[in-house]
Amino acid sequence: HVRQILSWRPPSLRLEGVDEDHFNLACGPGRLRHFVVSGCLALLVYNLFLLADARMIPDVYPQAVQMRLYTFSPVALLMLLCGVCFKNMVLRIPRPMLEGALMMTGVVAALHMGWLLQHSNSPYAGMYTAGLMPITIYGNLVQRFRFRYALVFSLVVMATCLACVWARSDRVNPYDVFDVPLALLVAVIAIYTLAMNYRFELEERRRFQWQVRAQVLHKELAASQVQLDELSRQDPLTGVPNRRHVDAYLQQQWEQAKLRGDELALLLMDVDHFKAFNDRYGHPAGDQCLKHVAMALQRQVPPQIGCVARWGGEEFIVVLPRAQLHAAMKRAQGLCKAVHGLGLRHDAAPAFGCVTISVGVAVVRPASDSVNDAIDSLIAQADAALYRAKASGRNRAEPALSPVSC
């Protein structure tokens, strides 16, 4: 336990790598706004101390007015105006330079007071050392200088306080008994406010890290949700879209075709004698067969032309937007040739000796508002055409017998 206590180090106030730059960049606008608002309030309080100057150090009151109103205040006001009117320009100032300039406002305020106390012969001048306390609180807690700057600022305040006590040590006044206790009080205030300043900055940096981590987790979660959604719309065996995806795609294309007045083609196809293929070669070979067929269909119908999806079992469906009947039939015949051209051996198919497909084609010009019923009717027409293709000898495409009216 003793070793743990001796080896303890306070948490670092600097983030690693680009995180530090990211932190400063992200906090910059809010920090500048805080400086402007709290700076206006602090400047008002600083000049209100002229009331105390007039009562406690009247012999240097003219110098106090000169320092507060005519020297410090114009410079401070100029800095505040720059923070309001030239915000983007100020935010481009290197961070150490900007933080150092802000720290100097507190340092100059403390040095002004120290000069007044050393040059005043008022009996109350020693007690006026307490005026360094609000200056310390201003820098460490109100403006909340970054800790390293707050530390330098606090050391300057304490050095100013000690210098005032030492400079007045050879003077006799009725209240000199308060000099040392007031100096100790200023030191205690500086130490306490420094500790709070350190804690505030540490918590600010940790909050920033938590926010960044939360944003990263949110993005990862969103990406996972997108991936899961894509997986839920993909057939795990063949890799082509599944029925859920094609249902949504078909409804979307239906609405667009209705708005444009275009035709929409639907091709429903089935692998010929697929049960016999499974019985002869086994289900693993059947799965491989479906994969090859799906790839052949996708090569013929890329995404920019239409959508190929597995409809169920050995059935596939193709949706072709903006396709008239002759174009849809030509595409369907091309699909039959592509699958036949794979040359997948199928001894149980007596007519061709290889894997083939049959295709039913239905084309519609969407007009109905009852989308689901109209789509069901379109699929039924394509399914009827598919059965006619099978009855006519397979490895062919057949159109719907009559125009689909939806």
Which percent band covers the strand fraction? 5-15%
Shape: rod-shaped
Mean pLDDT: 90
Helix content: 55-70%
Low-confidence stretches: none
How many helical stretches? Answer: 13
Structural class: alpha+beta
Distance between the amino and carboxyl termini: 83 Å
- In the sheet with the most strands, the strands line up as 2-3-1-4-5
Secondary structure tally: strands: 5
Q: Determine Rg (CA atoms, Å).
A: 41 Å
**Helix and strand sequence:** HHHHHHHHHEHHEEHEHE
What's the story with the biggest beta sheet? 5 strands, mixed
Structure overview:
This protein is α+β, with helices and mostly antiparallel strands and 406 residues long. It has 13 helices and five strands. Strands 2-3-1-4-5 form a five-stranded mixed sheet, with helices on both faces. Helix 2 runs antiparallel to helix 3, helix 5 packs parallel to helix 7 and helix 6 packs parallel to helix 8.
